[in-house]
Amino acid sequence: MKVTKRVLMRSVLGAAAAAAMAGFGGAAWAQGAPVKIGLLATLEGPFAAGGADGMRGAELALIQRGGSVAGRKIEIIKGSSNANPDVAVNATRKLVEQDKVEIMVGPLSGSEGIAVKNYSKTQPGVTFINGGSGAQATTLVDPSPNFFRFNTEGAQWMVGLGKAAIDKGYKRVMVIAEDYAFPYSQVQGFMAEFCRLGGKVPVKAWVPLGGKDYASTIARIPKDVDALLVVLGGADAVNFLNQYEAAGGDKPMMGGSITVSQDVLNYRGKRRDSLVGTIAAGPVADAFDGADWKAFVADYKKNFPVDKGGFPSPSLFAFVYYVNMKAALDGLAAVNGDLSGGQLKYREALSKLELKGPTGTVKLDGNRQAIGTTFVTEVVKDAKGDLSTKVLRKVDNVEQLLGIPKDQFKVGSRDEPNCP
């Protein structure tokens, strides 16, 4: 079925639980009415493949609980956006105001997250938990008391890459990134460290989200830069890589977190093989050998094999949606399914939650923003021809201010930081 932004799909995970509800009626209701959770991801636009995998990650968290928490079935009502903030808010509004969801999980893209955060302030009776969006400003600027983010964000994901670049001899770097809030955060996270260590960024090329022609950007690449930092995701990354290869581009590349996610690494194209050796950073590393990560990957592959639409390993989007949905359900379990009293007990439980995730324990700061783990990685090719990321460095307990004093910290933008 083709999914559009106007299509909302209902699914109740746990066929056995559904059958029990149908068979026993009042007895099942006595355990508690179903909990409605809205689930929003980008199922259209440049991040459609990532959005679909985000849905898989969220569904996996539900599958692991058998479709219910504290005797209450979980009813998922899905919505689609296309990385446009207005579309994301409209889809969220429908889920909240018409479908009457009690908990909202989403959205995926950075500027969408800021817009949905702002909308959440108008709906104090609903708890909003991020899906995958990673713009700094979602939680760092004018935070909402009922919006929680259990994934670290774009700047946190880039910690360590600046030093890795210097260590490889990349002293002058050109940035090529999409022109919206999430890439601003990624570039800020990279440059804060890179510039401090003496690196220079003489050119930043901000390109439109969903752009298809990168000829003018490629023409701007200076001969004297040592490498490119490419912060493009989904179809945008694929289009750029193909055009850069066709133009004979030969500069080494570093990747933003979404540029080396499985939805990009396993597209079929000539340029993809040249990604081997690319260093990057993000909240996941495909080859991480942690026991909880391995269990997560195995469960993902079991439920979403490649021949059923899954990737060889969970994408970044599957991971972050899994973490946020798991937090939503773990918080619900902590209050025994009780969402009464304006959900205040539930939100208190979320605020105090120390979430055991696939890459380690996640806890929230005072802005309800995750403190967690970042990996510096390198793209490698396995015997099957699949690309994945291996661990170069693991950095734990990364906070949103990146170790910078609060009075000196500036949120990433087109012009901040600047070290020409």
How would you describe the overall organization of this protein?
By secondary structure, the chain is an alpha/beta fold. It has 2 domains: 9-151 and 290-371, Response regulator (Rossmann fold, 3-Layer(aba) Sandwich), CATH 3.40.50; 156-287 and 374-408, 3-Layer(aba) Sandwich (Rossmann fold). It is built from 15 helices and 16 strands. Strands 8, 9, 10, 11, 12, 13, 14, 15 and 16 form a 9-stranded mixed β-sheet that branches. Strands 1, 2, 3, 4, 5, 6 and 7 form a 7-stranded mixed β-sheet that branches. Strand 15 (370-381) and strand 16 form a beta hairpin. The radius of gyration is 21 Å and the shape is globular. It starts with 8 loop residues before the first strand and ends in a 22-residue tail after the last strand. Mean pLDDT is 92; it is low at 1-31.
Secondary-structure topology with pairs:
Elements: E1 9-12, H1 15-24, H2 26-30, E2 35-42, H3 48-64, E3 68-69, E4 72-81, H4 85-98, E5 103-105, H5 110-120, E6 127-129, H6 137-140, E7 147-148, H7 154-157, H8 161-167, E8 172-178, H9 181-196, E9 200-207, H10 215-219, E10 227-231, H11 234-246, E11 253-255, H12 262-265, E12 279-282, H13 291-303, H14 316-334, H15 344-352, E13 355-357, E14 360-364, E15 370-381, E16 387-398
Parallel strand pairs: 2-4, 2-5, 5-6, 6-7, 8-9, 8-10, 10-11, 11-12
Antiparallel strand pairs: 1-4, 3-4, 12-15, 13-14, 14-15, 15-16
